[in-house]
Design goal:
With about 180 residues, the chain is of the alpha/beta class. Helix 4 links the parallel strand 5 (about 70) and strand 6. It has seven helices and eight strands. The chain has helices at about 10, 20-35, 55-65, 75-80, 130-140, 145-160, 175-180, and strands at about 5, 10-15, 15, 35-40, 70, 95-100, 105-110, 110-115. A six-stranded mixed beta sheet has the order 1-4-5-6-7-8, with helices on both faces. A two-stranded antiparallel ribbon has the order 2-3. The chain is globular. The longest helix is centred in the C-terminal third of the chain and has 16 residues, at about 145-160.
């Protein structure tokens, strides 16, 4: 495999650590040892953000061990990293903070870049984060830098939220290329 994508839902859900968490941490370690690019979205699904410290510590451990960490704003703050302006990144890790309608921040060894969202009419935001992740990962695997990969992720998310549902709203490659080629904001 060229990539390993991990979602926090596999490691923790409903404020508890799942038995599968050990498998996840081992898989990330094995992937890193074998030169596989690693991605992690904590994907915290909680009705409130009072998450037990052992769960936060596990998610932080995974985030610190991957190449690309893909939290939203709340997840980024919860897991305990510093504010983006303080340059919390290393040469080994790139952090993409998804900010919904504000776009995203790309924090990496070359500094901080803001990627604005693509203009769209929001019909249903369900699946936006997953769509962004799919576009971002595709961009990286095609040899793009983190900023161009985030632009691709933003285009995929914009097209996704312009339709109702999840699986049936994910765009086809031609739709994404058309949006990017037209210079869609």
């Amino acid at each position: 495999s060229r990539a390993l994508y991990v979602t926090g839902v596999v490691a923790s859900e409903a404020k508890i650590i799942k038995p599968s968490a050990k498998v996840i941490t081992s898989a990330v370690q094995a992937a890193k040892q074998n030169g596989v690019i690693t991605f992690f979205d904590p994907n915290i699904r909680a009705k409130d953000w009072d998450i037990p410290e052992n769960v936060v510590a596990l998610l932080r451990q995974i985030a610190e061990s991957v190449d690309y960490y893909l939290p939203n704003e709340l997840e980024y703050k919860l897991i305990g990293f510093n504010k983006p302006e303080e340059g919390d990144f290393s040469k080994q890790r790139v952090i993409i903070i998804k900010e919904g309608g504000k776009g995203c921040l790309v924090l990496g060894p070359k500094g901080i870049a803001r990627v604005p969202p693509k203009s769209t009419i929001v019909v249903d935001a369900t699946g936006a984060g997953d769509a962004f992740n799919a576009g971002f990962i595709t961009g990286i695997l095609r040899g793009g830098d983190p900023v161009s990969a985030a632009e691709l992720g933003s285009a995929v998310a914009a097209l996704t939220i312009s339709k109702v549902g999840t699986l049936n709203s994910f765009p086809k490659a031609d739709d994404v290329v058309e949006l990017l080629d037209c210079g869609g904001d």
